[in-house]
Amino acid sequence: MTTINQNYLELQGSYLFSEIAKRRTAFIQNNPNAEIISLGIGDVTRGLPSSVLNAMHAAVDELAEPGSFRGYGPEQGYDFLVKAIIENDYKSRGIDLALHEVFVSDGSKCDVGNIQEIFSNDAIVAVQDPVYPVYVDTNVMAGRSGSFNPDTKRYNNIVYLECTAENQFKPSLPTQKVDLIYLCYPNNPTGMTLTKDELKVWVDYARENNCLILFDSAYEAFIQEKDVPHSIYEIEGAKEVAIEFRSFSKTAGFTGVRCAYTVVPRDIKGFDAAGNTVLVNDLWNRRHTTKFNGVSYVTQRGAAAIYSPEGKEQIASLVNYYMTNAGIIREGLASIGLEVYGGVNAPYIWLKTPSGMDSWSFFDKLLGEAHIVGTPGVGFGQSGQGYFRLTAFGSLENTEKAVDRIRQLTL
Amino acid sequence: MTTINQNYLELQGSYLFSEIAKRRTAFIQNNPNAEIISLGIGDVTRGLPSSVLNAMHAAVDELAEPGSFRGYGPEQGYDFLVKAIIENDYKSRGIDLALHEVFVSDGSKCDVGNIQEIFSNDAIVAVQDPVYPVYVDTNVMAGRSGSFNPDTKRYNNIVYLECTAENQFKPSLPTQKVDLIYLCYPNNPTGMTLTKDELKVWVDYARENNCLILFDSAYEAFIQEKDVPHSIYEIEGAKEVAIEFRSFSKTAGFTGVRCAYTVVPRDIKGFDAAGNTVLVNDLWNRRHTTKFNGVSYVTQRGAAAIYSPEGKEQIASLVNYYMTNAGIIREGLASIGLEVYGGVNAPYIWLKTPSGMDSWSFFDKLLGEAHIVGTPGVGFGQSGQGYFRLTAFGSLENTEKAVDRIRQLTL
């Protein structure tokens, strides 16, 4: 009898997106001529920049002949890409990293999902609420979550750090001992950020309390304001206590091309049961080389092209396109008195639903009356109740049209 | 204090390939003019077929414009690829599979490494010896292996199924209760296969003893003989007890392009602690969608092109190229009285070292006297001691030259 990983039974159904799809389908059946605009998904829609396309074509050509063919590459990524990452994303901000501190992967979802494996199964995990579900689900699978409490709709052994308008979506420090803290800035879903001083509080806390920050920075490219740190390593001492996750998905339109990277500094110390020091970098390297076989060569060449002068300009223009949409949504909604957050340093707009509606009621109203699909905030956690997420990843035309429709609603 | 996953400390150093690199480097330092030929690595060397290249170029072009852009795809793979897989790799052999029984991934190494996650941590694991190290290492990381015994050089809780010349590299059934059995056919490293009748013994055993077969079939494309099954599902009842792993890496030269797939039939039942049935397909789907974000669109289009009429011809020609090499090695070595195995249905040749030399002594002799790098069999497990692996993935010219050199050795 093959027994299964019992922890999987504690996973809650991925209710959010299936429920959205269900309600959308039902609406379309009753309103076959409605022109629905989706501001719900977190996926990009623009074409890839020509610098990336050219690099990918050239890489495909290289694979044609034995002389230039590339088979297995280094699991951690080719040096040409790792060097470009370090030079452009870190050294330019005064942060030194060694080649073997950067691990190229096929996606941040994989990395933030897999990272927990290298830590003890009894580590106490803290997450922001609302939260990207992968942090929670992967810890449920590993058995760190404890049972799901149907009353609180939370897992008993996970520490939830609430982020609401009351605290400007800036969580308080944990009041109990935790080992791993997932922080996401610029935040998905709220679109909010921390200043350097605010992030320093977390780094100092981690150093004083011997915990580790898992810093998901997938939306870094969208930062516009000066005082918002682009990397957690801009904070002194962070290299001892933080792992940083970055992605090319939203930065460069790589959601279908698949490339990301994770920084695991050699300064991070873990401890075994006997109290001996073990370098977390060594553990991640072992995991990465044992369970992963490197990113497609074609993809890595495409990613490296982003760092060319032409690539940088094109990426900036892509980011600007989406941030223009974000501004249109943000200002359009604010102009009719809605309480809106995010959208300044992130492609997500987080709004407080009007008149105390719950998230799903607002979903139904927006779909029914404006033919717009968004994402109910409660889908990201209990602290998301009464909030709603819109994304800036649509076309400019659809974004303008959607905002016009919302402005005409009676709220 | 962040405590680590203590199981990682039981991992043994990846001694094999670092030791090979060390001895090779030392040799080159002392013999800078020697022309070394590597028949050691398991990586392909030919260029990609034009059908694949054309499909990849076309896919890159699609990503240029919003109208044809592809962002996130289904984590399980696009239907166009899954349908091609089912139609060509299974239906053509009389095997019916549903779309949701096939999971496209970025590599078999990932899949065979990750599959253990969905089973209980106290599952008893059986592996062939010699063995592809990933099966063992990923179970060590999960805590299923028990301690490493430095005397036997084996893990205490893993069941090793010995494969030597004495049993024609066909392991005996386990004599103790096991839950998960990793079988690899055509085998890496021995290059040997099972007939249908021989594989049926394992399927029947698994059905009678409620265990699961994890069938690694990465080298399926190299099968030449009629009685060798291409899929474990050719055996009646296998859909209830076997997960099958396939790869495009060696089939089509995708080691740097990254694509594979795993078949998890809906008929496989797992059991929770209370004895309730849980579909293993559901568990793997949940794992795959939570920790993985799909294979690069460009790669998937390239993989699908393999199934076009032109693609099939080109793949057959690639396989033929490598199998010609295999024949040259096999026959060349046999002609001087060496005991050789494999190389008929697989790109690996497994030879018994002459005069009772141990694997590393033969490595040194081959490198020192013939300037050829191969892989010591003992690196794959204790039952590989006194054996040696050569691969057929080099160029025809180098393969012929290498065999000529070996023929001139005094053995």
TrEMBL record, chains A, B:
E.C. designation(s): 2.6.1.83
Domain annotation Aminotransferase class I/classII large: ranges: 35-406
CDD domains: AAT_like
Pathway(s) per entry: Amino-acid biosynthesis; L-lysine biosynthesis via DAP pathway; LL-2,6-diaminopimelate from (S)-tetrahydrodipicolinate (aminotransferase route): step 1/1
Keywords assigned: Aminotransferase, Pyridoxal phosphate, Transferase
Catalytic reactions on record: (2S,6S)-2,6-diaminopimelate + 2-oxoglutarate = (S)-2,3,4,5-tetrahydrodipicolinate + L-glutamate + H2O + H(+)
Gene Ontology biological-process annotations: lysine biosynthetic process via diaminopimelate
SUPFAM superfamilies: PLP-dependent transferases (SSF53383)
Pfam family, one: Aminotran_1_2
Molecular-function GO terms, alphabetical: L,L-diaminopimelate aminotransferase activity; pyridoxal phosphate binding
Cofactor: pyridoxal 5'-phosphate
HAMAP family given in the database record: DapL_aminotrans_1
PANTHER family the UniProt entry points to: AMINOTRANSFERASE
Name listed for the protein in its UniProt record: LL-diaminopimelate aminotransferase
Species for this entry: Paenibacillus oryzae
Upper taxonomic lineage: Bacteria, Bacillati, Bacillota, Bacilli, Bacillales
